[in-house]
Amino acid sequence: MTDAARHVAVVDTSFWSIAVRIGFVRVLLEEFRVAVPAAVRAEITHEDPRRPRTRSDYQDVFLEIEPELVHLPEPEPPPIAGLDPGEASVIACARALGAIALINERRGKRVARALGVIAIDVAQAVVLVAAVGRLDVPTARQLLARIRKLSSTPREQLTEAERILDAMERREN
């Protein structure tokens, strides 16, 4: 898919860390032109004072693929009030760019929707990529199983994603 055909998506820290842990980042980068606001970059690259000079897997992957990311306009739009800095900047940037917000938290997704921003969580992103034929349904199910093991994604998000994959499988048969 060409760059022009891919939607811009602005990613939040929790979405990023889950995508890395389930092995979904490369597919995400093929499907979307991903942008990372400064506040999210700071959260991702923040060094844990309890373990100095030790990086997590999601930090390593971020630093490796950072050159592939879409650059946001300077200055970035002011963050949305009432949210954590990462979510607030993701929604503000997505709104300004007409982009998709990649957010895993329910509250952030609700705020984004109220502001007219399309917001999807990791489970929805997996289903979307399967629906456009970039992943087969068994692989999408494996990714959802990995998300479930992390236990950071609300159960109803996973249940809905699995229902959609069930419907896709029935259509294929």
How would you characterize this protein structure?
The chain is of the alpha/beta class and 173 residues long. The protein has a single domain (3-172), classed as 5'-nuclease (Rossmann fold). 56% of the residues lie in helices and 8% in strands. The chain has helices at 13-21, 25-31, 38-45, 57-65, 85-97, 106-114, 122-131, 137-150, 155-172, and strands at residues 7-11, 32-35, 100-102, 119-120. A four-stranded parallel β-sheet has the order 2-1-3-4. Helix 6 (106-114) links the parallel strand 3 (100-102) and strand 4. The two termini are 27 Å apart. The mean pLDDT is 88.
**Helix-strand makeup class:** alpha/beta
CATH-level-4 superfamily name? 5'-nuclease
Which CATH class is shown? Alpha Beta
Overall spatial form: globular
What proportion of the residues is helical, as a percent range? 55-70%
| Number of helical stretches of at least 4 residues | 9
In total, the number of strands is 4
Estimate the strand proportion.
5-15%
Rg calculated over all Cα atoms: 16 Å
N-to-C order of helices and strands: EHHEHHHEHEHHH
The number of domains: 1
Order of strands across the main sheet: 2-1-3-4
> How far is it from the N-terminal to the C-terminal residue, by CA?
27 Å
User: What's the overall average pLDDT, rounded?
Assistant: 88
Concise summary:
The chain contains nine helices and four strands; from the N terminus they run βααβαααβαβααα.
